[in-house]
Specification:
Largest sheet: 7 strands, antiparallel
Number of helices: 12
Order of helices and strands: HEHEHEEHEHEEHHEEHHHHH
Structural class: alpha+beta
Shape: elongated
Length: about 300
């Protein structure tokens, strides 16, 4: 057996995920695949093809995101030698998810993951892509003291980082599987608080996280059908382009970037150049608070430009 799998500290990069997964199974854990079906056009079909008898659960079920059925990640028991894992490891679709090792029941694992789908920040709740292994890696590598809270009943996580390296995250460090499982009551969602320290951990991934959150919010709200898209583009690529444009202009907070995307949808994707430029956008550096007020008026049907 690979020695790196036997003594995996709290967080470390590994070369091959296989030994770490096999070691977890030998130690008494079951494995669970968390799969984002949006990561690859064949991802969900492959899961049902390779694991036809698996008890597959939708992560968004029984949560505030349950209406986003098509976007919900799937959680399924998996074996280390599953052809599904081999396909994922070989195909490597971006941000496909992660593999969990735990001796807890499936319901307890699902309850914990669902409790982290929404997190608190700046007095509001936002979506956390807890099912994305690269997001969890960013948090755990930057804030290792948070690992026990983030993993909950999960003993080990194996996933790719945003640099496409493999990482192994152990809740108990070198004490892996040395204490018996203690059942945990699910926490009410949201309970986890994001701070400026978390924001720094997401520095490189922030555009992708914002793109996901803004896209899902627009899809979920009732007014979405009135927001027109370019005829040859889907929502998420559109949002990604304009989140990047907004950040280049100097916008930073989530509300400012969401309003910027809305303005681009409502008033032309070259906003603010396609209309009389709102005063805050003509200044450098941009005054984000004033820009937010201006964009709120622009998005309001009765609003006027500055």
């Amino acid at each position: 057996m690979d020695n790196e799998a036997v003594s995996c500290p709290t967080y470390r990069l590994i070369g091959d995920p296989g030994p770490s997964l096999q070691h977890a199974v030998i130690s008494g854990c079951a494995l669970w695949l968390v799969l984002d079906p949006q990561s690859h056009e064949q991802a969900l079909a492959r899961l049902y093809e390779y694991e036809p008898n698996a008890d597959i659960s939708e992560l968004f079920h029984k949560t505030q995101l349950q209406n986003l059925h098509d976007f919900s990640p799937r959680v399924a028991p998996i074996e280390p030698q599953s052809p599904m894992l081999r396909w994922l490891f070989d195909e490597n679709p971006g941000n496909w998810g992660m593999v969990l090792a735990s001796d807890a029941p499936q319901d307890e694992i699902l309850d914990h993951l669902r409790s982290l789908l929404l997190v608190k920040t700046d007095g509001e709740s936002v979506i956390l892509r807890i099912w994305d292994g690269s997001v969890l890696n960013s948090l755990c590598s930057a804030l290792p003291e948070e690992i026990p809270l983030l993993l909950g009943p999960v003993r080990r996580v194996v996933a790719r980082t945003d640099r496409q390296e493999w990482a192994c995250i152990d809740r108990d460090g070198n004490a892996f599987m040395q204490t018996p499982h203690q059942p945990r009551q699910p926490l009410p969602c949201p309970w986890y608080l994001l701070t400026q320290r978390h924001e720094r951990a997401f520095q490189n991934q922030r555009p992708a996280v914002l793109t996901h959150n803004i896209s899902e919010f627009l899809l979920h709200e009732k007014s979405w059908p009135v927001l027109p898209l370019p005829p040859t583009e889907r929502l998420r690529p559109f949002v990604a382009r304009h989140v990047e444009r907004g950040m280049e202009l100097g916008l930073w907070c989530a509300e400012a970037l969401e309003l910027f995307v809305r303005c681009c949808l409502l008033h032309g994707e070259s906003f603010p150049d396609v209309r009389p430029v709102p005063a805050p956008f003509s200044r450098s550096p941009i005054d984000e608070d004033m820009a937010i007020l201006a964009m709120r008026r622009i998005c309001n049907p009765g609003g006027n430009h500055d």
